[in-house]
Amino acid sequence: MSAPHTKRICQIIKLKPDCADEYKEVHRNVWPGVLNAIRRYHIVDYSINHYPPLNLLIANFKYTGSDFEKDMKAIGDDEETQRWWRLTDSMQESFNDGASGSGKEIPWWTDVEEVFRFEGGSSA
């Protein structure tokens, strides 16, 4: 059996300045059902970073499944994840014109192009 392909994802969104403390607080205690959905649909090594001078959130994760679109739809169909997104989306502003929230037709978070990767390995 071959190992699953890993797809790296990096995304950005604006954090409303008056919501920074609340956003960080809710992420100290992410709901178990949300974490289970992330795990169930093949997302690993997930982190969100905050850059206050630009009110920027930067999400990085790896997808290890075989059908990214199907798994992302399944996460979006998860009721607890939908409730979580309603909470966290209210603290964010999308860069994407017409976006109205996570899991909708127009992406809420903006994908960012990877321009460099170094994975290490043995030295020559």
Q: Care to describe what's here?
A:
With 124 residues, this protein is α+β, with helices and mostly antiparallel strands. 31% of the residues lie in helices and 24% in strands. The protein has helices at residues 20-28, 32-40, 68-77, 79-89, and strands at residues 7-15, 43-51, 56-63, 92-93, 110-111. Strands 1, 2, 3, 4 and 5 form a five-stranded antiparallel β-sheet that branches. A hairpin with a 4-residue loop joins β2 (43-51) and β3 (56-63). The chain is globular, with a radius of gyration of 16 Å.
Q: What is the compact description of this entry?
A:
This protein is of the alpha+beta class and 124 residues long. Helices cover 31% and strands 24% of the residues.
The largest pleated sheet is described as:
5 strands, antiparallel
Poorly predicted runs of 5 or more residues: none
Strand content: 15-25%
The percent range for helix content is 25-40%
- Shape assignment: globular
Alpha-carbon distance between the two ends: 30 Å
Q: What string gives the helices and strands in order?
A: EHHEEHHEE
If you average the pLDDT, what whole number results? 94
Q: Supply the helix-strand structural class.
A: alpha+beta
Q: In total, how many beta strands?
A: 5
What is Rg? 16 Å
Question: Treating each run of at least 4 consecutive H or I residues as one helix, how many helices?
Answer: 4
